[in-house]
């Protein structure tokens, strides 16, 4: 089965970001450096994260890496956001994620009932990643 996972590239904050996301989502964290994979052509890259993966509680998978010195710098803005969504039965979990992500950054759109009936909010975390949270309303019927 194929999976689609967000992969976030940061300048030099991957390890701290992964530890932060681990505190938000729980689960199992794996971090490998450029040196561990024999890819530290520049000694300054040796301890940078070549691949970090968080397999969070509830099936969340998030990957984060530092950009090595031989690659162009990470752009300050991106047209990609990470979306967290679930039904009303996930309300407490999603609101918990929202509060933890927001605590490190800033709110773009408050988490409140949107015109389509779901609770929706947007924030940017302390690492510059934009998160969208959508909590589905109770099933109509």
From TrEMBL:
Domain Glyoxalase/fosfomycin resistance/dioxygenase: 12-131
SUPFAM superfamilies referenced in this protein's UniProt entry, alphabetically: Glyoxalase/Bleomycin resistance protein/Dihydroxybiphenyl dioxygenase
InterPro entries: Glyas_Bleomycin-R_OHBP_Dase, Glyas_Fos-R_dOase_dom, PhnB-like
Pfam assignment, any one: Glyoxalase
Protein name: VOC family protein
Species this protein is from: Agromyces lapidis
